[in-house]
Amino acid sequence: MVEEKLRYSDAELAEFKALLLDKIEKANADLALIKSAYMNNSNNGTDDTSPTFKAFEEGSETMSKEANSQLAIRQEKFLRDLKNAVVRVENKTYGICKVTGKLIAKERLKVVPHATMSIEAKNLQR
Question: Domains, the chain, ranges and CATH?
C-alpha cells in the first residue's frame, strides 16, 4: 500500500517559499509601476490644442485612471494572496487543498503559487 503524502517536505516548502518571495518582489515592482502611472498627471502637452480635443483627452485620462485603479486593486489582492501563501509555507500547511485536504499538484503550485485548491476541487465549484 502506497501511503499518500500529507504535506510537502521542508525542502520542497523552502523551494516554494523562494518562488513566492520572487513573485512578491515582481508583484511589488508591478504595483509601483501601476501606481506611478496612476499618479502621473502630465497632460501630454494638450494645453494649446482645441477645446474639443482637450475634452476627449480628459475623458480618456479619467478612464485610464479608473483602469489603473482597478489594476492596482487586483495587484494588491494578488500580493495579499502571495503573502498568505508564505504564511502557509511557514505553518507547513502550504499546498494542501482547503476543500479535499489532499496535496495540490506541484505543477499547479509552480504556475499558481498562491493556489489554495486542487484542480479537482476547482472543477467541483463549476
Answer: 10-124 (1.20.120.910)
